[in-house]
Amino acid sequence: QVRLVESGGGSVQAGGSLRLSCVLSGGTYCKSHMSWYRQAPRKEREYVATIRDGRQTYGDSARGRFTISQDNAKNTLYLEMNNLKPEDTAKYYCYSDRCAAWGQGTQVTVSS
Fold this sequence. Notes:
This protein is mainly beta. Helices cover 0% and strands 55% of the residues. It has strands at 3-7, 10-13, 18-25, 33-39, 46-52, 55-58, 66-71, 76-81, 90-96, 101-102, 106-111.
């Protein structure tokens, strides 16, 4: 059974940084195509970034501030977030596009 577990969320002030992690287990082939999404209260889930066979793509809100990466040896997906803004406040989810599996999410709160 594929399992994705996120961590690294927390509360920071605007301008700060956080690094989210997502550990994959139960299906390491799922790591070939993975993404981050986020969902703020009363809003729809929003695409953040994807890494597929080493290539990265970003949504408009993430481009230039966030970096998605992987450590294949550790089966771990990362999202480095810099220059955080209050509008980045959301629950962030790891997703395996390859296996259509979601993590449980990790909360990020950015205060002004």
